[in-house]
Every structure is written in C-alpha cells, then in structure tokens.
C-alpha cells in the first residue's frame, strides 16, 4: 500500500450516514457569511457557509437554510435578504449568528445599517449582496433560496474568514511571494 492509499478513507455508498457526510464536508473550506432579512416576518439573521454564485445573468446566488433554524420563519415570510461576507475581524459576529443567541441580541455587537431592501447590512463586510428571493426549493431538511442581486458593495479588508475542519481560519488578500 502506498502513502496516498494509506491517507485515503473510502466510505461505501450504503454507509453514508449524516455523520459520515458531515465529516467529509468538514474537509471543504468555505467562506463565512451572515445572511440577514427584515420585513413582515421580522428581523433575523444566521451564519451560513452554504452560499454560492449561480449565474451572472441575472446576477444570482443561492443560500441554503435549515427549516428548523430559529431564523427560518422570518426568511420564509420576507421577500428580500442580504448576504454579508465576513472578514477575519468578524469571527465573533459569526459565533453570535451561528449559536443559540436570541434573535434580538444578535444585532447588538456590530455596526448594522439598511440600504435598498431594508435587510440589515454589516457596515464593514468584505462584500454584501442585497437580494430579492426569486425561487425557493425545499431539499431534505433545508430550503434553497435563489437570490437575485438588487444592490451590492465591497470593502477591501485585508483578510477573509474561512471555515475548514470545524475551525475558523484567516486568509490574507495577498499571499507574500517567495523569493
Ligand atoms: N449547511 C448547514 O446547514 C451547516 C450547518 N452547520 C451547523 O453548525 C453547527 C456546527 O457545525 P460543525 O462544527 O462544522 O460540525 P458538523 O459536523 O455539524 O458540520 C461539518 C460540515 O458538515 C456540513 N453540515 C453540517 N450540518 C449540515 C446540515 N444540517 N446540512 C448540510 N450540511 C451540513 C457543513 O459543511 C459543515 O462544515 C452544527 O449544528 C451544524 O449543523 C455548519 C455548517 C453548515
Ligand atoms: C460556520 C457555520 C456555518 C453555517 N452554515 C449554515 C448554513 O449554510 N445553513 C444553515 O441553515 N445553517 C448554517 N449554520 C448554522 C446556523 O448558523 C445556526 O447555528 C443554526 O441555524 C441554529 O440556529 P438557531 O439557534 O437560531 O436555531 C452554520 C453555522 C456555522 C457556525
């Protein structure tokens, strides 16, 4: 057996439990976002790594939200949301929105504003995307929200926040070149 084979762990298809899937998913590094909303369903937000770009025409991204999350009823009732991309300075913001913190307290510890849609915008987010939810698709425990961009902005913070191996990591904007 060579070194590569020794480091590779295979799981038979019939054995793919939720735990095995999560263990494998912990090997995917992901950007960390706080997704917020406000409207008839109230103000809410949650930490999300399941966010990705779908198409640039019309500019669209997707967000997956667990339907058992305390934030879900507000997202189900509201038509707009904001994806706030976190910088390395926002690890505590991520913990606040990813834990069991009561919804009203989540917005107390960072600077939030509103712009086009009324969804809370994190003042110094690395980027923010205000969106109109254009489609909703339930899949298992989650709902995929397809989100058309209404307005966006970027902010050149020096490092982004990543989630990998169940831990936070910080990645600099520019990697120093060797030699
Ligand atoms: N997509 C999601 O719903 C995610 C939920 N979480 C939640 O945050 C908490 C802490 O998670 P970890 O410490 O990373 O350990 P974990 O073992 O629960 O998660 C490991 C990885 O599995 C994936 N994952 C976790 N829960 C999932 C779910 N319900 N549906 C689809 N994918 C899921 C994510 O990629 C995550 O990084 C847990 O309660 C977890 O459920 C974390 C990341 C993503
Ligand atoms: C790094 C990280 C990423 C997460 N990504 C998602 C996600 O993409 N979708 C999701 O529904 N929940 C995600 N969660 C979990 C939610 O942020 C939240 O903890 C969960 O919905 C339970 O919140 P509640 O106590 O308000 O019900 C993530 C949590 C962490 C810490």
Automatic annotation (TrEMBL):
Major enzyme class: oxidoreductase
GO biological process, one term: uracil catabolic process
Purpose: Catalyzes the reduction of FMN to FMNH2 which is used to reduce pyrimidine by RutA via the Rut pathway.
SMART domains (UniProt xref): Flavin_Reduct
Highest taxon listed in the record's lineage: Bacteria
Enzyme Commission number: 1.5.1.42
Family: Belongs to the non-flavoprotein flavin reductase family. RutF subfamily.
GO molecular function (one): FMN reductase (NADH) activity
Sorted UniProt keywords: Flavoprotein, FMN, NAD, Oxidoreductase
Signal peptide: none
InterPro entries: Flavin_Rdtase-like_dom, NADH-dep_flavin_reductase, RutF, Split_barrel_FMN-bd
Listed SUPFAM superfamilies: FMN-binding split barrel
Entry keyword Flavoprotein: yes
Annotated ranges, domain Flavin reductase like: 25-170
Natural source organism: Kushneria avicenniae
Reaction catalysis annotation: FMNH2 + NAD(+) = FMN + NADH + 2 H(+)
Entries under Pfam families matching the protein: Flavin_Reduct (PF01613)
Name assigned to this protein: FMN reductase (NADH) RutF
